[in-house]
Design a protein that fits this description.
single chain, about 230 residues, mainly alpha, 3-stranded mixed β-sheet, about 60% helix, Biosynthetic peptidoglycan transglycosylase, PBP_transglycosylase, peptidoglycan glycosyltransferase activity
């Protein structure tokens, strides 16, 4: 009897948590996230929080192009998961190559909006759960809008508007192709690299991203965010 009660309790708890998480996703479809777990963690560590939410229409088209070119060229066509990239990342990691994540923009948005930053299987499983429901509930342009507003771009700097003003002294609406490419180039490690003081590696990476941006524009790979 006690065993049956425990099973019912666990099932009820699981269903309750699932309902809360889905409700949270529905809420963020229309309400800007007021903050993220990473912002809280960094703030506890002594960093400030510089962010300024802007709708996607108030951000230069060059920036979505740049992050699609850099982070996730199939963003507009996949359902949240790029299975081939994930397979390649898994094989590379198992072979002892440099650690890769294989995360799409959708997966990164889910991680940043709701979760912490480690690489445990529990966190990855929760990331997949949030990504699945987010893709079902949000349109692609909302995913991109939230991504560009909550992603970390430097110590205490979150989102495109705060980053554009901090690094280039202008609004995100006025970013050039080169500036957008530089911002995308530092995303893998924004605490190490800075768009306004690019290393030789970041400058070269930004050049490659600019070339890919032309392909994104030519092939309409950013149509879902226009």
């Amino acid at each position: 009897m006690n065993g049956q009660w425990l099973i019912r309790f666990i099932l009820a708890l699981g269903l309750g948590l699932a309902a809360v998480s889905i409700g949270w996703i529905v809420l963020y479809r229309v309400v800007p996230p007021p903050g993220t777990p990473l912002m809280l963690i960094r703030a506890i560590g002594g960093s400030g929080i510089d962010k300024d939410w802007q709708g996607l229409g108030a951000i230069s088209d060059t920036l979505p192009q740049a992050v699609i070119a850099s982070e996730d060229s199939l963003f507009c066509s996949h359902a949240g998961f790029d299975w081939e990239s994930m397979r390649q990342a898994w094989q590379g990691n198992m072979a002892g190559a440099r650690l890769r994540g294989g995360s799409t923009i959708s997966m990164q948005t889910a991680k940043n909006a709701w979760l912490w930053q480690d690489r445990t299987y529990v966190r990855k499983g929760m990331e997949a759960w949030f990504t699945l429901w987010m893709e079902l509930i949000w349109p692609k342009n909302r995913i991109m809008e939230v991504y560009l507003n909550i992603i970390e771009w430097g110590d205490g700097i979150y989102g495109a508007e705060a980053a554009a003003r901090a690094f280039f002294g202008k609004s995100a609406a006025n970013l050039t192709r080169r500036e957008a490419a530089l911002m995308a180039a530092v995303l893998p490690n924004p605490l190490r690299w800075s768009p306004d003081k690019p290393t030789r590696y970041i400058s070269g990476r930004a050049g490659v991203i600019q070339q890919r941006m032309s392909i994104v524009e030519r092939d309409g790979l950013d149509q879902c965010v226009k």
